[in-house]
Each structure stands twice: as structure tokens, then as C-alpha cells.
Amino acid sequence: MTEVGARLLVTDDNKVNRLLLSRSLELQGHRVATAENGRVALELLRRESFDLLLLDMEMPEMDGFQVLEHLVEDAQLRDLPVIVTSSLEGVANVVRCIELGADDYLHKPVNPVLLKARIDSSLEKKRLRDQQKELVRRFATSEVAQDMQQSGFALGGKRVRGSVMFSDIRGFTALVESQSPEDTIELLNTYYTLMFDAINGRGGVINQMIGDGLMAIFGAPLPLADSCGSAVGAALDMIEMIELFNVERVAAHKSPLRIGIGIATGEIVAGYTGTQQRATYTCIGDTVNLAARLEAHTKLAACPILIDHSTRLGLDARIQVKTLGAVEFKGKSTAVEVFSVNVPSQGAGSI
Amino acid sequence: MAAPVIDPATFANLQEAAGAEFVAELVDTFLEEAPRMLAELRNAQADASAERFRRAAHSLKSNSHTFGAMKLGAMARDLELGGIIADAAPLNALDQEYASVAAALKGLGND
Questions:
Q1: pTM over cut 0.90
Q2: Do A19 and B17 make contact, defined as CB atoms within 8 angstroms?
Q3: CB A125 within 8 A of CB A105
Q4: Does position B98 have pLDDT exceeding 60, yes or no?
Q5: pLDDT per residue over B7-48, tens digit each?
Q6: What CATH number has the domain bearing residue A156?
Q7: Which of A114, A209, A317, A329 is the most exposed place for a label (fewest CB within 10 A)?
Q8: pLDDT one-digit tens code per residue, A97-156
């Protein structure tokens, strides 16, 4: 696949080279900006967003080597792909460029076919890197990342009020046995992408993923004005996303997915546990246990979303619930009131 | 038989890759820029600036190769790699070769 319309910066002090390179790149469908030396290029790179830099070495004011040195030291620009286009001779120069982080080195005059191949390859690598960064960002949501930075990764705990969600895929073990490992991993990746979208979109933080199950917290580490509404809203979004995903699966002759979600609200003990090297944001307490029990109970109750009384109290009238009565849970001395959240137009593929 | 001032295959490839109309503009740019590079070589020589001398020769070499001006490119390359010289003769020869290149490029542009 060719990346169409990438934004490239051509840096060359020689006008003929600059024009010719720009022309070649524009003919390949890219958008091109130019800079006549390293200093101007760095200014542009820090002000605007580019997908790739084409860099000449011999330049007045600031040469290509200096640009490469600046890029390595700049956290924002470190991962920018750089292709050196130079007529500098000698393997030593090529080696120096690669050591300074350049992706590739093309001798001028640049062969347009070679140029296209190298650029496509660099852009593809960048796309994969960006995807990975995005994944990492999702695992450690910006709230958690900020909180961790501000607290200096303090491993202490605190009591907070929030809503806890557990979710998993119904009949997942049977599903795993019926398909190839590759299909299972691909399914899980799609599933997690959808669930992360729904949960992060409502201010929730996912702090555990085990197999097909996940745990999310609403209201910690940072307080959330309406943790109950956010958690239930996320649950409804999750169901809707799964329904949409099922339309695709059924069309591909695959069995539809069903998920169960349990939500409980109350006091939780939250904090980072682990060591300074490897820490995770953890929540413990009765609320967490209850949310897990409610999630397990969705199988028995045959309802996709079950919530406790405290969560129910936090919901506004727009969200319809059905009272299921008191249920005895293991590890609970008294029976717990359980409510099922009505899912609008379930299975109708509502968009 | 002397080699042509502009290598026809290189020039044709350039036209094919970038478009003949664009190449005509590129030639005009080169004809504006190259005299500055030649002047810079002279100035660098007068100022005994090896760095400027090398850079100007490097630039001229690079552009010469782009258009297929192989002899001009080779002469510029010798100056780039050989380093600064006090002797004016190689620069005079360079000017002369450039005059041939410029005439040839103008001819190609009018085809």
C-alpha cells in the first residue's frame, strides 16, 4: 500500500536540487515543503507536523549532521523518519548519518524509482511506530500518565469514591477452541480497541486486562463528576459497538459476540502497587468484589449489564433499569439489590 | 570522438521522470544559480576559504550530474575532493566548460 498525501520536508541549500526533489515527490502524490538550510528546517519541524524529512548534508548555517544531532535530542522529533539525500562521497559519511539516526542514504542525483521505494518503506515504518505509540498511550491513559507524573509514581493508596466495571466475553473458551490462534488474537485486538474507545471516551481508565476480561475504573485516579452515569454510558456504548461489530462477524459467517458487564459504585482503595520499576494502578475493596460478582451474574440473569443500588441512585431518568430483586452473592453477608440496565433497540443494529 | 557536453540519456531520463516542461524551468534555475557557484569558487579562492571552495564545487558537481553534464561534474568533483587551490587555470577551464554546458542546455530547451 502506498501512503498517499504524506507531508514531507525537503531540505537542501541548492535550489536545483530542492526543486527537482520536490517535483519528484509531488508526482508521487505527497505534499512538500522546503527549507534551504538546517536551521530553517528545524524551525519548520518544530512548528508544523511532517511525516518525513529529506535531508541534504552540505548546507550553510546548519548542516545535515547538525540537524540529525538536534533531532535525536528532541523528544518530539526523535522518531521522525529521515532520508539523507547527498552527493557527499565516502562510506564514512553514510555510516555517520546512519549512526546519527537517519533511516536511509540516497546519493544524488537521486533515482526517482529508488526514491519512491525508500520513502514508501520509511512511511510504512513510521505508520507502524505511530500505531504502537497509540497502543501504549491507550494502555496508560493520559489521566493515569499525568497523575503518575505529578505524584512522582508514589506507591501510596487513598480512599476514593468511584464506579468499578468488569466486563468479559460470553462463551469465550468455546470460541477460542473453534478458531485458529491467529483469529483469536485478531478478535481480541479488535474487541479491546472497541472497548478502550468506549471506556476512555467516558473518562474511564482500564487497569486490568486478562484474556477476554477487563476491569475499568471511573472516578480514579482523577475524580469524575458523574462516575455512575459515565460507567453505565460506557457500558451502553460497549454493547452498541459489539452489536455493530457483530453485523460484520455475521456477514463473515462468524458467531456473534456477547459480553457481560457488571458495575458497582462506592468507596474503593486506589493506588499504585508494585515497585518503582514496574507499577500498576490498582483498586481494591468491597466495591471491586461486587462489580466482579455482578459481571459473573449476567450469565445467570441473561442480562448484558447489571449494576448495584449505589450505581442505580447515581443515574438520571433517561437510563431505564429493571429491578431484579435481591441476590445472594458469595462472600457477601447480606443480599444485594441488583438492577439490569435496559439496552435500547438491542440487536437491531442501531446506529 | 569527444563525449557530448550533455549526456543525452541522463537528460532524457530527467525529462521523463520530471516532465519536459518542468525540466525547462529547472534548466533556467540552473543557468541562474551556476554563475553564482562559479563566482563563489573565485571568491573563496581569493579569501582562501577552503570550506566555501569545497561547498561551491560540491554544489556544482551535484547539479552537473543531474543534467548529465558529465565533464563539468567531473571537473567540479576534482576541485571538491582536491581542495582549495591558488592556481586560476582550473577555474578558467571550469568557466569554459560551463559556457559549453549552458549553450547545450539552452539548445536542448529549444527543441
A1: no
A2: no
A3: no
A4: yes
A5: 999 999 999 989 999 999 999 999 999 999 999 999 999 999
A6: 3.30.70.1230
A7: A317
A8: 988 989 889 988 888 888 999 999 899 888 877 776 665 555 555 556 555 555 554 556
Of residues A23, A58, A109, nearest to B22 (C-beta): A23
Print burial letters for A281-299: b (CB count within 10 Å at least 16), e (below 16). Answer: bbbebebbbbbbbbbbbbe
Nearest CA in chain B to A27: B18
Specify whether A296 is located in the same domain as A213: yes
A207: its cell numbers? 487497569
In order of A176, A247, B91, the CA distances from A173 in angstroms are 5, 22, 81
Task: Report CB contact under 8 Å: B17, A108.
Answer: no
Alpha-carbon span A219 to A163, nearest angstrom: 7
- The segments of chain A whose pLDDT lies below 50 read 1-3, 153, 347-351
Q: B62, A60: Cβ pair inside 8 Å?
A: no
Chain A stretch 82-111, residues whose beta carbon is closer than 8 A to a beta carbon of chain B: 87-89, 108-109
CA-nearest residue to A108 within chain B is B62
Nearest to B66 among A20, A60, A89 (CB): A20
Burial degree of A95 (CB within 10 A; 0-12, 13-18, 19+): exposed
Q: Inter-chain contact A20–B18, Cβ cutoff 8 Å?
A: yes
**HSE-up of residue B13 (Cα within 13 Å, Cβ side):** 14
Q: How many domains, chain B?
A: 1
Same domain? For A252 and A332 the reply is yes
Q: What is the residue whose three cell numbers read 472516578?
A: A219
Nearest-5° Cα angle at A231, A230 to A236: 95
Q: Which residue of B has its CA nearest to A17?
A: B63
Q: Is residue A29 part of a domain?
A: yes
